[in-house]
């Protein structure tokens, strides 16, 4: 392949973005674009992988066989989503093993939402409905992101997330029609997951330092606050449909804009969790490392078997 | 969800090198959605050998019956074109290769 000069490459990169076309793996890209994408896609992949833990916690205790089968399928999807994203990240010249290693060493993060504990079955409903819906709002926007492999992974993921959100809301609907205790359990889960779900969209625009550059590169198409508002507007009526409330005494509806306006978000809590002081930051990584190390023999056995079969084939043809 | 988790003050800048020592090789995955259609590239998987790659591709890319057949090819064996304009540009100025280039009167009929 002929290498483009940096000057010609930069011009083509700018023209491709201006035309709203996708950047593809073999294109010339600025190093900053590459590093920003690797960081974001790795964090996204790690989030999917760590995101299996809060829900995995309830697989053995699902209330019916059908709910259990659904939860297993959902958790398997999360693993799949992690793999789509590592695969897309590898087109930027990084490797999955390298990224996983950075996660294990605490040098790359995952979404803070997964550092909260799942205390009751209703949390499976709250995660599917609130956390996955928040993820969908963000990921639908990312389907139009400028890097082709990332955008395509988002299309694939969004198709599957819709099942996740709906199964979560279906758990909440079942609880809402249940006993007083079940309704209390549902409300308690909403009370605990509401604010962390809103924090998933990241700091307010005024404090979001990387947004301008990411928007110029069309990695990001909407700001944190825009997406957060979209999520609030779709979710508040869904809570009311359940006969539930969201834990915000300052919530008001603005007739003119059609927006639900929320009270102040506790950003101190957000930063504390990002800095590693959430309820379960250490446990999540410790559990991930334990699974990685305890299953090393599976990876070694598969490699040994592949090597043996390769030798057998060579001998057979000799 | 925003996956660009904000950078903290003093956060170590991570540089990736693409280090793959000890890792299973990478395989590109192609899926035939149904009979009569081509296999289409969908992504990649890691696996120790081709047989395991097919299994991993099935679990990763066809959990909802998205395919009836899977191909895997070692990523290192993919040979790609030079995607620059110079490679494909010569075809842009040959409109006469397309049937719509020719004006044929209606009375001539199907042509």
What do you see in this structure?
The complex is a heterodimer of chains A (318) and B (111). Chain A is an all-alpha fold. Chain A contains 13 helices and two strands. Chain A has helices spanning 6-18, 31-50, 52-56, 65-90, 96-104, 122-142, 148-176, 180-199, 211-216, 224-241, 267-277, 281-294, 296-317, and strands at 252-254, 259-261. In chain A, strand 1 (252-254) and strand 2 (259-261) form a beta hairpin. Chain A starts with 5 loop residues before the first helix and ends with a helix. Chain B has 111 residues and is α+β, with helices and mostly antiparallel strands. Chain B has helices spanning 50-61, 85-88, and strands at 26-32, 39-46, 69-74. Chain B has a three-stranded antiparallel sheet with strand order 2-1-3. In chain B, strand 1 (26-32) and strand 2 (39-46) form a beta hairpin. The longest helix of chain B has 12 residues, at 50-61. The chains are: A mainly alpha (318), B alpha+beta (111). Chains A and B meet through helix 2, helix 4, helix 5, helix 6 and helix 7 of A and strand 2 and helix 1 of B.
Helix and strand content put the structural class of chain B at alpha+beta
Please describe the biggest sheet of chain B, giving its number of strands, its sense, and whether it closes into a barrel.
3 strands, antiparallel
Report strand order across the widest sheet of chain B: 2-1-3
* Morphology of chain A: globular
Specify the helix fraction band of chain A: 55-70%
Write down the secondary-structure element order of chain B. EEHEH
Number of separate strands of chain B: 3
Give the number of helices of chain B: 2
Helical segment count of chain A: 13
- Number-wise, the strands of chain A total 2
Q: List the chains of the largest interface with their residue counts.
A: A-B, 68 and 38 residues
Low-confidence stretches of chain B: none
- Distance between the first and last residues' Cα of chain B: 55 Å
Poorly predicted ranges of chain A: none
Structural class, judged by helices and strands of chain A?
mainly alpha
What is the beta-strand fraction of chain A?
A: under 5%
Distance between the ends of chain A: 36 Å
Query: Mind summarizing the main beta sheet of chain A?
Result: 2 strands, antiparallel
Task: State the oligomer.
Answer: heterodimer
Mean pLDDT score of chain A: 95
Strand order of the largest sheet of chain A: 1-2
């Amino acid at each position: 392949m002929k290498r483009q000069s940096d000057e010609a490459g930069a011009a083509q990169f700018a023209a491709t973005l201006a035309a709203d076309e996708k950047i593809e793996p073999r294109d010339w890209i600025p190093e900053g674009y590459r590093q920003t994408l690797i960081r974001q896609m790795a964090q996204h992949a790690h989030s999917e992988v760590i995101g299996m833990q809060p829900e995995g916690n309830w697989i053995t205790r699902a209330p019916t066989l059908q709910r259990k089968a659904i939860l297993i399928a959902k958790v398997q999807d999360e693993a799949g989503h992690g793999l789509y994203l590592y695969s897309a990240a590898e087109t930027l010249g990084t490797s999955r093993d390298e990224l996983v290693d950075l996660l294990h060493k605490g040098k790359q993060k995952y979404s803070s939402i997964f550092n909260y504990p799942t205390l009751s079955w209703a949390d499976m409903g709250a995660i599917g409905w609130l956390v996955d819906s928040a993820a969908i709002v963000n990921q639908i926007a990312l389907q139009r992101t400028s890097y082709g492999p990332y955008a395509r992974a988002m299309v694939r993921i969004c198709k599957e997330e819709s099942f996740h959100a709906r199964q979560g809301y279906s758990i909440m609907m079942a609880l809402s029609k249940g006993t007083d205790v079940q309704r209390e359990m549902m409300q308690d889960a909403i009370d605990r997951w509401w604010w962390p779900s809103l924090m998933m969209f990241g700091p307010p625009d005024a404090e979001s330092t990387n947004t301008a550059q990411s928007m110029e590169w069309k990695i990001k198409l909407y700001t944190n606050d825009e997406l957060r508002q979209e999520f609030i507007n779709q979710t508040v009526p869904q809570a009311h449909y359940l006969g539930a409330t969201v834990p915000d005494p300052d919530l008001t509806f603005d007739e003119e804009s059609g927006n639900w306006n929320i009270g102040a978000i506790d950003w101190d809590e957000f930063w504390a969790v990002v800095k590693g002081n959430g309820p379960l930051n250490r446990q999540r990584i410790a559990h991930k490392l334990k699974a990685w190390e305890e299953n090393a023999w599976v990876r070694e056995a598969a490699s040994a078997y592949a090597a043996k079969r390769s030798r057998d084939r060579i001998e057979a043809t000799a | 969800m925003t996956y660009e988790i904000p950078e903290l003050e003093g956060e170590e800048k991570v540089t990736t090198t693409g280090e793959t020592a000890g890792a299973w090789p990478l395989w590109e995955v192609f899926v035939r959605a149904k009979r009569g259609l081509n296999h289409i590239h969908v992504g990649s998987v890691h696996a120790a050998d081709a047989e395991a790659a097919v299994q991993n591709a099935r679990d990763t890319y066809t959990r909802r019956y998205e395919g009836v057949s899977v191909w895997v090819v070692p990523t290192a064996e993919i040979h790609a074109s030079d995607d620059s304009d110079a490679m494909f540009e010569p075809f842009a100025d040959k409109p006469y290769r397309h049937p719509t280039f020719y004006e044929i009167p209606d009375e001539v009929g199907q042509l």
